[in-house]
Design goal:
With 338 residues, the chain is an alpha/beta fold. The chain is built from 14 helices and nine strands. Helix 1 runs parallel beside helix 5, helix 3 crosses helix 6 and helix 11 crosses helix 14. The protein is elongated and about 80 Å long.
């Protein structure tokens, strides 16, 4: 709305609102932003007449105007009006609302909005086959996933364990209180620093997943994404994740399902050729996690790697003797605490 909205002398504002057509226009524009052509359909007047009234209203600060492609949309924001003008509008609105002309305008407004919905539905009907492609072109291939970060609790401390170049930490940082990003490679951490250096709430630390440089029970969420297959002792990773998580904290693990691409051992240093759902569940339970869920993920179009899974579990509490599976508890504790 114009800066002088509601600041003109009250008598001038009375003059602006003295015309019944302008009052009718404001009634419908308080409900929805509309273009000139739509307003012509609603008030049943020529475009030149409607445009003239809109200019008077806009010049007096009653309307906000914004571009929508090649059109202009007009709207009355009654909440933005200053005291005297707001009281004047409430009085005028009360007088006009039940008039025969306003009632007809309201019916035609519904017709205009219905045509908008029809046009939108026709677009989506015709674009359904190409919609995914259109969204990728407009917003990028991962835009639909990035918005999910808005579900995170802004009070959380999140661990990005095996952070690599900091891609995940960059996504998480705007939505949580703190991100602790850990990696064993100096080069990876240097690359991550270039990516997340502007975030004051991201801490980059060098360390292994089997011996995390993180205090006990200090994280709300820990994430291990596409790194578990590089670790010789995955059970140690799960035990360490439980150690650094608060009771009730969540561990999220994403990695590859079992595959037969043995060349990955030589070309990319993989220790494990994926993990079965049963195998992952055992790691979670043995380390002291409840509510374990393992979800295979659908293959992404154009992807060339093995299928992936995402698994989650909730920490029962800090590790206590006897909590872990008897056959693995001593060995796991030895790896973690050595």
């Amino acid at each position: 709305m114009n800066e002088h909205a509601g600041r003109a002398p009250l008598l001038d504002q009375l003059t602006v609102l003295a015309d019944a057509v302008r009052g009718r226009l404001l009634l419908v524009l308080e409900q929805h932003p509309l273009a000139v052509g739509e307003l012509c359909d609603i008030v049943q007047l020529p475009q030149s007449t409607v445009s003239r009234h809109l200019k008077v209203l806009a010049d007096a600060g009653w309307l906000a105007v914004r571009r929508d492609g090649t059109s202009r949309l007009y709207q009355l924001d009654a909440d933005a009006l200053e005291g005297p003008s707001r009281r004047l509008w409430l009085l005028v609105r009360e007088q006009l609302t039940d008039s025969a002309a306003a009632t007809q305008d309201e019916r035609r407004l519904k017709g205009v909005l219905a045509r908008r919905r029809t046009a939108s539905e026709e677009f989506f009907s015709s674009a359904a086959d190409q919609w995914d492609h259109v969204r990728v072109e407009l917003f990028g291939a991962s835009s639909h996933l990035q918005v999910v970060a808005g579900l995170l609790d802004p009070r959380w401390a999140v661990g990005d364990l095996g952070c690599g170049t900091g891609q995940l930490a960059e996504v998480l940082a705007p939505f949580v209180a703190r991100v602790v990003a850990v990696d064993a490679s100096r080069e990876m951490l240097q690359a991550a620093r270039g990516r997340v250096g502007d975030f004051a709430n991201v801490e980059l630390r060098r360390g292994t997943l089997e011996r995390l440089p993180i205090d006990d029970a200090s994280l709300d969420v820990a994430m291990v994404t596409l790194v578990l297959h590089h670790v010789a002792a995955p059970d140690a990773v799960f035990a360490e994740a439980r150690r650094v998580l608060k009771p009730g904290g969540r561990l999220v693990v994403a990695d590859m399902l079992p595959h037969d691409r043995d060349e990955y051992r030589q070309t990319m240093g993989h220790v494990w050729l994926g993990f079965s759902e049963r195998q992952v569940s055992r790691y979670f339970v043995a380390a002291g996690f409840d509510g374990v869920q393992v979800h295979p993920l659908p293959a992404q179009p154009g992807s060339k790697g093995p299928a992936l899974f995402v698994a989650t579990g909730r920490a029962r509490g800090l590790a206590e003797p006897g909590d872990l599976d008897p056959a693995s508890s001593l060995a796991t504790a030895g790896v973690v605490r050595a």
